[in-house]
Specification:
Number of domains: 2
CATH architecture of the largest domain: 3-Layer(aba) Sandwich
Strand order of the largest sheet: 3-4-2-1-5-6-9
Largest sheet: 7 strands, mixed
CATH superfamily of the largest domain: Uncharacterised protein PF07075, DUF1343
Distance between the termini: 55 Å
Length: about 425
């Protein structure tokens, strides 16, 4: 009987321990160690693509290894690589420029390498910028949203690489929004711009490597493209699942939570309402002096949008819209990342402010073509028209859901994971 008592005690202990062990495996503490970025895969397995070649590098502060060492310094000090030039997207190679700020040519003080700007007057590398370069490498963390400009810096650089007979290498990184969900309108080519160059949806659900392959084939770039794939990334992952530290891709993208709301709340940039620039929570704080925060929060919470709630909030932006003026509105609190639909949330937010404050709310002015910046962000003119003419959010979503089906079919051909 005593032996049976000991056996039952051990059995009970295992019943408590095993679920915890299974949970540890499910949460993936081991898979974080197995996961490798494209940069890590390059350094460990694929250096032959750069060995003995003069390398041009397109990067920014997000191009780091597991220990947060910059790819600039890693390649500059690598015995098998001759790093010759750096190319910076919006905000620059070291991330020191604000949104829309032009960065001129300069010499990187740490390495002495020339740094060419790919934002402003020259978005596409010129033959002079590429002189003596044998291979171009792209390593930048994207945020999974169509109007984030880095993916078009990549596309223009791929075009230049093709025109100058230079191979193009993309070091893949995770999509912080995951790789399963796609959402929002597909861009109408008539609204093509640097915040939306190709017909993809607002939330595209692809990595930069997958986008590079899609751009290269579907939009006739035809560069000599190589994607160094990640190892062990799952499309269902959140960014935390990768075990990577978050490095600011741009000054107003301070956290992964910012990236999560960005595909929808950034639509506020196309209006006279503050998207929270100049605060510690850009794109999570939304407001203006004419808004009643309690009223707006109540209206939004009544919509019962999936995975999100809204809190009345007041703030004074230090810069950008309404700088120095007390503004009222809401803070976006994502409660369930898996359920949250950022584009649905953003469109509901814009429409709610439009409907509550018709005498104060404005879309940004139209240009000579009759196109507002709000239209460029959406990639069409019909979303603004629907809001202005009183159509419902359900009607907006129903229309763009039809567009998404064709993109989903096209997208499948280029998924790597």
């Amino acid at each position: 009987m005593r032996k049976w008592g000991i056996f039952l005690t051990i059995l009970m202990l295992f019943s408590f321990i095993l679920p915890g062990a299974q949970a540890t495996n499910q949460k993936g503490f081991d898979h974080k160690k197995r996961f490798k970025t494209g940069l890590e895969q390059l350094l460990n397995h694929d250096m032959r693509v750069l060995k003995g070649k003069k390398v041009g590098l397109i990067t920014n502060p997000t191009g780091v290894d597991r220990n947060l060492n910059s790819i600039v310094d890693v390649l500059y000090n690598h015995p098998d690589v001759e790093l010759k030039a750096l190319y910076g997207p919006e905000h620059g190679v070291r991330g020191s420029a604000q949104a829309g700020e032009y960065v001129e040519f300069y010499i990187d003080p740490k390495t002495g390498l020339p740094v060419y700007s790919l934002y402003g007057a020259t978005k596409k590398p010129t033959p002079e910028m590429l002189e003596g370069i044998d291979v171009l490498v792209f390593d930048i963390q994207d945020v999974g949203t169509r109007f984030y400009t880095y993916i078009y810096t990549m596309a223009y650089a791929m075009e230049a690489a093709k025109e100058n007979n230079i191979p193009f290498v993309v070091l893949d990184r995770p999509n912080p929004l995951g790789g399963k969900e796609v959402e929002g309108p597909v861009l109408d080519p008539a609204y093509s711009s640097f915040v939306g160059l190709y017909p993809i949806p607002l939330r595209h659900g692809m990595t930069v490597g997958e986008l590079a392959k899609l751009f290269n084939k579907e939009f006739d770039i035809d560069a000599d493209l190589k994607v160094v794939e990640m190892k062990g990334w799952k499309r269902s992952w959140s960014y935390e699942d990768s075990g990577l530290e978050w490095v600011l891709p741009s000054p107003n993208m301070p956290t992964k939570d910012t990236a999560l709301v960005y595909p929808g709340s950034a639509l506020i940039e196309g209006t006279n309402v503050s998207e929270g620039r100049g605060t510690t929570k850009p794109f999570e704080l939304i407001g203006a002096p004419f808004i009643n925060g309690d009223q707006l929060a109540e209206k939004l919470n009544k919509e019962a949008l999936p995975g999100v709630t809204f809190r009345a909030a007041s703030f004074t932006p230090a810069s950008s819209k309404h700088a120095g003026k007390l503004s009222h509105g809401v803070e976006i609190h994502v409660k369930d990342e898996k359920l949250f639909q950022p584009v649905l949330t953003g469109i509901t937010l814009v429409k709610s402010i439009h409907d509550l404050y018709p005498n104060d709310f404005e879309f940004r002015a139209e240009d000579s073509r009759g196109i507002s910046f709000f239209d460029l962000l959406n990639g069409n003119g019909w979303v603004r028209e629907y809001i202005e003419t009183g159509r419902t959010v359900d009607e907006i979503v129903s229309r763009y859901d039809q567009e998404l089906e064709e993109f989903k079919i096209l997208r499948k051909k280029y998924l790597l994971y």
